Amino acid sequence: MKIKFAISAGLVLFSGLGLAFADTAVKTASVPAPSVKQDAKVKEFKDILFKLVRQDEYLDEAIETLDSSRGPATPEEISALGVSLNSIAKNLKHVSALNKTEFAAMQSGSSLSTYTNTILSYSRKVNRKAGQVNLLVAKLAAKNKKTSMRDAVSSKKGGKKARGKKLTQILEEQKAVAKLAADARNLGAASRDLNATSKWLYIASQ
Questions:
Q1: pLDDT on residue 197
Q2: Tell me: domain 34-205, CATH 3.30.70.20, correct?
Q3: pTM of the model
Q4: What is the DSSP code string of the chain?
Q5: What is the pLDDT of residue 165?
């Protein structure tokens, strides 16, 4: 009888150990899940950074065009630059939307703060360059206004052309520069919003 009891007790103990090990195995198997989730988040933040780096490069090109000795001279060149600024602004707004989405899911003390800090750094850099674009566009507008007034007077005195320009061309240039100024302001607003969302995202990750 004692032997049967000992065997039964041994089976119960073995069974209990088996369940305990099984439970441990289940818990161990579930450990990699947070890592997978973390990797997905890292990928999302790297994607945001990639987008910011590209816009930073596009802004460099716009600044180089505006700051060159010649600058955008024709209405077509001015309009093309405006299209570029609008494209950058659109992409910055998209990154701002991504920042807001990440902000809602962010937990304090996150190990992702390194990425949010880099995002904030690039956002500030982009914001400064957007401000530089606005200053250069304002400079171009002032120069164009002065030139247009001079050429308009010459046009009235000399007939249809003013220094090789027709009055209609002068008006086209004025219109293109005015549109470019509006595009630059739109870019400035988008960059400021990006800077704000990047700042809040970084704060939330601390």
A1: 98
A2: no
A3: 0.75
A4: -HHHHHHHHHHHHHHHHHHHHHHHHHHHHHTHHHHHHHHHHHHHHHHHHHHHHHHHHHHHHHHHHHHSSS-S-SHHHHHHHHHHHHHHHHHHHHHHHHHHHHHHH--TT-TTHHHHHHHHHHHHHHHHHHHHHHHHHHHHHHHHHHHHHHHHHHHHHHSSEETTEEHHHHHHHHHHHHHHHHHHHHHHHHHHHHHHHHHHHHHHH-
A5: 62
